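Problem statement: downstream parser choked on a complex file, so we are re-checking the raw output for the zinc ion run. The parser issue turned out to be on our end (a line-ending mismatch), but while we're here, posting the original submission so the record is complete.
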Amino acid sequence: MNGCLFCDIVARKLPAEVIKDDGVVVAIRDVNPQAPTHVLLMPYEHITSAAELTPAQDALWARLLHIAQEVAIDDGIVTSGYRLVTNVGRDGGQTVAHLHLHLLGGRRMRWPPG
Ligand code: 5GP
Ligand code: ZN
């Protein structure tokens, strides 16, 4: 989508530290990490948020989860644990309107989140 930051990143029109790309999902390191591991997992397809997912995208959502698992293994946090978050809309704190999962780990997470 024109003017979408993450569409531009998956299309390599903007630079990012890409750590995985299976042609469907891209994983990049967050530019402003909130934990030792802070990775963003996003589909190539422009979907505004989890609120826009349809049943036709069930496999895509599962793919995001599996890529997150692979990154957690690669970063050595699969045993210590990690958090997966997807912010939705204004009250969810979403700042980039292209569906993405945050994978956070390498430190103890707090609950409830802010
Ligand atoms: P949201 O607030 O939408 O849930 O998450 C957006 C995330 O994208 C934030 O954690 C922010 O640090 C990250 N981000 C924003 N711009 C860029 C960028 O240009 N490159 C990368 N790698 N991350 C970005
Ligand atoms: Zn987009």
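For whoever reads this later: The CA atoms of residues 31 and 43 lie 18 Å apart.
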